[in-house]
Amino acid sequence: MDVSEIEKLAHLARLNINDETIDETAKSITGVLALVDQLQAANTDGTAPMAHPLDAIQKLRIDEVSEPNQRERFQAIAPATEDGLYLVPKVIE
Amino acid sequence: MEWETVIGLEIHVQLATKTKIFSGSSITFGAEPNTQACAIDLAMPGTLPSPNEQAFRFATMFGLAVNAEIGKRSVFERKNYFYPDLPKGYQTTQLAEPIVGRGYVDLQLEGGRTKRVGIHHAHLEEDAGKSLHEDYHGMSGIDLNRAGTPLIEVVTDPDMRTSEEAVAFARKLHSLVTSLGICDGEMSQGSMRFDVNISVRPKGQEELGTRTETKNLNSFRFMERCIHQEVERQIEVLEDGGTIKQETRLYDGDTHTARSMRSKEEANDYRYFPCPDLLPVIIDDDYIEAVRKMLPELPDARQARFEATFGLSNYDAGSLSADAATSAFFESTAAACGDAKLAANWVMGEVSARLNSEELSIAAAKVSPEQLAGLIVRIKDQTISNKIAKTVFEAMWDGEGNADEIIEAKGLKQVSDSGALEKIVDEVIANNSAQVENYRSADESKRPKMLGFFVGQAMKASRGQANPQQLNAILLAKLEG
Amino acid sequence: MHNLTIAEISQKLKAKEFSSVEVTEHFLNRIESLDPNYNAFISVTREQALAQARAADIKLAAGDTHIMCGVPFSHKDIFCTDGVKTTCGSKMLDNFVPPYNATVVENYLNAGAVMLGKTNMDEFAMGSSNETSYFGAVKNPWDTNCVPGGSSGGSAASVAARLTPGATASDTGGSIRQPAALCGITGIKPTYGRVSRWGMIAFASSLDQGGVMTRTAKDSAIMLNVMASYDSKDSTCVDQPLEDYTANLGDSLEGVTIGIPKEYFGEGLNPGTLAAVEAAIKLYEAAGAKIKSISLPHTGLSVPAYYVIAPAECSANLSRFDGVRYGYRCDNPKDLEDLYKRSRGEGFGDEVKRRILVGTYCLSAGYYDAYYGKAQQVRRLIKQDFDDAFKQVDVIMGPTSPSPAFEFGSKGDDPVAMYLEDIYTIATNLAGLPGMSIPCGMVDNKPVGLQLIGNFFAEAKLLNLAHQFQQRTDFHQQAPADIA
Is residue B19 located within the same domain as residue B114? Predict the structure, then answer.
């Protein structure tokens, strides 16, 4: 795992990684990947992937409105709002 | 070189549920910003999704209507990307195991041609919020009311070859989802949004050309224009020896131009994986059969019924049956007035013209089927002529009351009293002696044409209210006499 | 008063020996004077606690018989508390005051229990030493140069130091059992789906499970009775009848078969820990249990599988922390990308960032099958190991952790050394099984934990076995030297 690969991942994950620590990050992630690479030795032929511990199935919710407007409460903890909108730096499509 | 166009569509259909796909927030259109965004929709820490049963029923209905396999096991996955209108930083959607599998839609095209378009699959997912680009001190505003609105994304095979086919498919899909009652079909509100994948290739070539995807088309007209423009652009690039860049383009309905989307330029890596907060949704045959029994009449069946029951032409039946609300309006009118053909003419004629000019949907028509039927009844019983009826219709549309009230108030009743008509005819003959002479001396074959002058004069004198057949008969008798 | 168990406090409240306000104030005062030594709490909610205690006293006077009515306890700062700051140990949520309660929090409110405060933890529950907390590491009351374990280190240390009679916690790969072992207390992670995850800030959704930490098994049973519920707001919560976990504590050990997996006694196990665990097993045998050697052949793959699945899930779960709707937002972002990258870069600590990057890598195009897909397959193999084992035995036992509490910084900069701390606990989370740790001895004056693993929904059996052990031993009653 080199610095450029870390930078690519950091961009995908939208994480700023300091230039001073990026070598260290690359090294430690290489170590973690060496650990998880032990998986490759496992014989998993014919084994179905397991996403959940329990073989349960999804229950569905009845389509009835249950949520009142709580905008004031929710926006009281927001970093930047105006006219009921959350503000972010200009979105360019 | 001769080029062939290849078109595939992806259509986002907002489902007409009461609540969002994963929360109990309302999805009423036009609410104040962020007043329909609960803790789940805002992706507050620790909140979890709770899937909406109705969304699955609607998706199943859709699947059955497009002759598709229903996914008895469907799985939600997370599609990861960052965007301010996507609060969780991932969209919950379906990929490997969607609710609707392979299906097809048959289209009727001009000239009696038919075409089958394959449905690759359709999956359930959540809509994103909206970024409002008005200037808030150089910032954008985010409204998350729409975030979490249930969608089915319908993906077609690249089976269409012309804009006509693509638009016909889009119209058919609109007709299907509104007839099913699973979408309100309000395209101007974004209830149905089309992404068009377009490529061109030399005619006869098997391999597909590089495609572009144009997003954000929310009218059939835009779609047609966009396809024309993009096909022209691609051919021009290729004929100049260039290559088509695979890209996402955004259509601007104001300028009628499309441009490459800057934000989508970078190669995306969505890192799909099964959503660990949700379990597989299992649907059995009993459920599917129960939904099938609940399916309303679909447009094709309705068209056939209109032809058979009402004796409408294939074209008339087709245009009246396409949209569920229009069909219902027509059928109510026909039932109330007892004349399906007249009802059809009026719905496709005056009603549709006024709706178009005022950009209204049929649900917002200012004349009810009962009112329209009241008008048609007065045409049939000859109280008013067709021409006067148009005046009455305009007045009804403008809210002046029912047909009878307007006819009465404006004194528009047709004059069928032969005494009164004879008096008018006598006056016309007396005042136009020269023309009467001409008529009487003219050759037999030229007379019918000359009669028109006298009809016009008499009609004018009756302020348009003379019963035309009666007037004709009296005029003929007097002139010949 | 602080040496009383929850069961005893409950009984004395009902006998009017003291009021809820009195016992609450006693613990609040202890936290105030002693917690600076341990840093076990992120927030202490004195005013709220006293208001809840007064309300509980009124209910008790009116004859409320709920066993936890008026009993003080603490919540791990991973559970959202309406109106009370909930940080998850992160700078990202240093200013986050949730406008809603976790279901678990609601359950304790409904029982009339009194929340003293919110306990410290590894950032977003990612860690085994509590060193990743933005609010500073928690110190082990047995030796303040040592870690308390993690991620529920604050809950563990506060119970061990008698700052609270019991605490809630969560366990994704050992975060209840390992700190319970290192702090010499009792902790239980129930079956996945037994406790609602609604309002419990997610680390890895398919592994996270809430649980409790107390000094005795009986107290764990009492607290778990309140915590467990079916909750339609959590799709992965199991609609299974609730049971009274205190009902079978007295069951005999006669005829119980205990499986001892050979893989849990291999290389890397501290000899002192080994001796204590073996002695505990002998005690069970002497009390009538049958001991059977078993194998869980895929144990060695559990850490690698976990470090694909947990980071993958966390990489998506933590995307919502973007500086837009709540939480930390960087100063003066110059554009959208800057807002995201700096808010997240500055708001998350190194370990959290590392796991997000690892998870992002494992899910990225071209690597999914080799990492995530493979790990999901291995996960099934691990579960099958347990399925096979539970055909032969009622419960599995072994060490909770390879060694007792270690010194701060002793694992160096190597994350893998820290990850191997959870080598005996992680498989349980992958399989979704209930697990417990109870104190079973000492090494160098530091506690050793015995791990008990049960079949699905066998919490009552685990609590019964733990209680029977505690009837015959006093490890759970031992206190660090300077705890009076």
Answer: yes
Burial category of B253 from C-beta neighbours within 10 Å (exposed 0-12, middle 13-18, buried 19 and up): middle
Residue B367, domain extent: 297-410
- The shortest C-alpha distance from B51 to chain A (Å) reads 5
Cβ-based burial of C306 (10 A; exposed 0-12, middle 13-18, buried ≥19): buried
CATH assignment at residue C10 = 3.90.1300.10
The model's pLDDT over B71-128, given as tens digits with 9 standing for 90+, comes to: 999 999 999 999 999 999 999 999 999 999 999 999 989 888 999 999 999 999 999 9
Q: Is C76 a catalytic residue?
A: yes
The position carrying tokens 């795992």 is: A1
Question: Please, are residues C448 and C273 in contact by the beta-carbon 8 Å criterion?
Answer: yes
Which range marks the domain in which residue C195 is found? 1-484
Is B95 in CB contact (< 8 Å) with chain A?
A: no
- Per residue in B331-340, pLDDT tens? 999 999 999 9
DSSP-assigned beta bridge partners for residue B251: B258
A93 neighbourhood in chain B, CB within 8 Å: 250, 261-263
pLDDT above 80 for B416: no
Q: Are C126 and C202 in contact (CB under 8 A)?
A: no
Cα-Cα-Cα-Cα torsion C93, C94, C97, C98, nearest 10 degrees, comes to 20
Using an 8 Å CB-CB cutoff, list chain A residues near B261.
93
Phi, psi of B205 (to 5 degrees): -75, 140
CA torsion through residues C367, C368, C373, C376, sign? positive
- Give the right CATH number for A1-41 from 1.10.10, 1.10.1760, 1.10.3470, 1.10.20: 1.10.20
For residue C151, say if its preceding peptide bond is cis, omega within 30 degrees of 0.
yes
Query: What is the count of structural domains for chain B?
Result: 3
ipTM above 0.95, yes or no: yes
